[in-house]
Amino acid sequence: EEFIFNLKGLNRYVTNIENMYNCHCLIVPGDADSDESVKREMGKKAATLLKSLIRGKEIIAVTGGSTMAEVPRGITKTMEYENVMVVPARGGLGERVEYQANTIAAEMAKKLGAKYKLLFVPENLRPETLKTIIEEPVLSEVISMIKRADILIHGIGIAEEMARRRGLSQREVEIIKEKGAVAEAFGYYFDIEGKVVHYTPSAGIGIDEIKNISTVISVAGGKKKALAIKAFIKFFSPKYLITDEGAVTNLMNWE
Ligand code: BG6
Q: Is 207 helix (H, G, I), strand (E, B) or coil?
């Protein structure tokens, strides 16, 4: 009920997106690019939704980013979810600590009264190194949990911005642009048609595994992300999309 509060003028976008992508869409009024409180509000909505979906023993995988950082902030502390496990969806990004998936997973678990496991594997490792590392028994436990996640909650970014934030070289950034990448999510880059055009190898959730996760919640807003959001949902229809007015009204159509 709380999720059907969408403003009248935004209803046509909700209907359009829901029909087109077969997902539940929630649009927060305002534009996260120009108003901090909009991102906070998306976080709150995501938090409420997340709590409503937990039945008791779920594994929840979360990504990093400034949007995801608002989700634990939006949770009122409780001790209700002691059998829930929160894990980061991927390894570290080397970003500001408060935006790292590990930090957000721990914060979320604390707020829910849940358990958590962290994954201390940097991104940008050479594939050979990564392969050796993920076979380590200390890591295989958390990796197998990540791969069995019941719920994935993640952000969506603008390809070029995320490539820089993820510390890719200038050359790689150019390559990604040439390949037509507009969106990024958990280290994968998508073109306008939602095709994966590039990825950063990492421990954690792989692109094909996301299709096995029963509940995926995508949270992203702001005018500048409109195209990125569309590209991502073309690749994969999440069960829930939480976005904002700035993003949805910036595209003439969502088809
Ligand atoms: C990253 C996530 O950490 O944050 C990505 O792994 C996402 O999936 C990105 O694209 C979004 O960041 P922000 O700060 O724009 O919410």
A: coil
Ligand 1 pocket (Cβ < 6 Å) reads 63-67, 93, 154-157, 162, 184-186
Ligand 1 closest atom vs CA 184: 10
Copy the structure tokens of residue 59.
Answer: 């594994």
The pTM of the full predicted model, rounded to 2 decimals, is 0.95
Q: How far is the CA of 252 from the centre of ligand 1 (A)?
A: 24
How many residues does the structure list for the chain?
A: 255
Interface ipTM = 0.96
Q: Please choose from 40, 98, 152, 186 the residue to mutate so as to test ligand 1's pocket, defined by most ligand atoms within 8 A of CB.
A: 186
**Which has the closest alpha carbon to 198: 173, 220, 223, 217?**
173
Question: Can you tell me which atom of ligand 1 is nearest the CA of 158?
Answer: 10
Strand (E) or helix (H) holding 128: helix 127-134
Q: What is the DSSP letter of 77?
A: P
Measured CA to CA in angstroms, residue 223 lies from 152, 229, 251 at distances of: 24, 10, 9
Question: Residue 234, Cβ neighbours under 10 Å: how many?
Answer: 19
pLDDT digits (tens, 9 = 90+) for 21-31: 999 999 999 99
Which ligand 1 atom sits nearest the alpha carbon of residue 68? 16
- What are phi and psi for residue 215, nearest 5 degrees? -125, 110
> 92 forms bridges with which residues in the sheet?
122
